[in-house]
Amino acid sequence: MTLPNCDTLLLERDGGVLHVTLNRPDSRNAMSLAMVGELRAVLAAVRDDRGVRAIVLRGAGGHFCAGGDIKDMAGARAAGPDAYAALNRAFGGLLEEAQAQPQVLVAVLEGAVLGGGFGLACVSDIAIAVADAQFGLPETSLGILPAQIAPFVVKRIGLTQARRLALTAARFDGDQALRLGLVHFSEADAAALGQRLAECLEQVHRCAPGANAATKALLLATESEALGPLLDAAARQFADAVTGAEGAEGTMAFVQKRKPNWAQ
């Protein structure tokens, strides 16, 4: 696996974990078109690499992401509506790809988690926030729409809460994000945040990478596929897994009372 060169991201591989840090701290890691492109390239580069078990996404400088980049939007203004639509849809493409990424996507949420940052939190498999993080969908207060984010917010927290948050641009903290089901953990401080991240990554490490990828795809398919055909396909996948290398290793490890090779 060769990772792309990035100007807006910091990349660090630590064993089976790829740490991706949004690195535009002067703008609270606002999501530029360049950053969108680099994130999509990184996700594509590791998509088929089962040696990467988890991707940890966070922001530099104490903030996760404060939303879209105003400079990009100003530049699109001169080119007209089509340029705005293309700029907006590119971020939606990133969310689609991140949602479907085979690896476990972990979002570590500090400071501003607004607009596009909120959207990224909604497509994570595990979301860990610090209690004083600030979440919100500010778009309507700026006279615009959370156009690409909205479907992912609805799927994450439900239509009723999404309507309230999007139509009031209300801000809320990590504890409220936990109550809404937006995040899985709200931690008191940075030290507790780091401890929780290490715990979650250790749990991911126990799970077979191929089984995790197939399970994630199965869970996502429940939102769009009919139940009968979905269960038919799942039965075939189960049979392939049981008779495959991971299934054989997992069964043998259980009998021999040892850790399977992916958890060594």
TrEMBL record:
Any one GO molecular-function label of the UniProt entry: isohexenylglutaconyl-CoA hydratase activity
Highest taxon in the source lineage: Bacteria
Assigned keywords, A-Z: Lyase
Protein EC: 4.2.1.57
InterPro entries: ClpP/crotonase-like_dom_sf, Enoyl-CoA_hydra/iso, Enoyl-CoA_hydra_C, Enoyl-CoA_Hydratase/Isomerase
Family indicated by similarity: Belongs to the enoyl-CoA hydratase/isomerase family.
UniProt protein name: Isohexenylglutaconyl-CoA hydratase
Organism: Pseudomonas triclosanedens
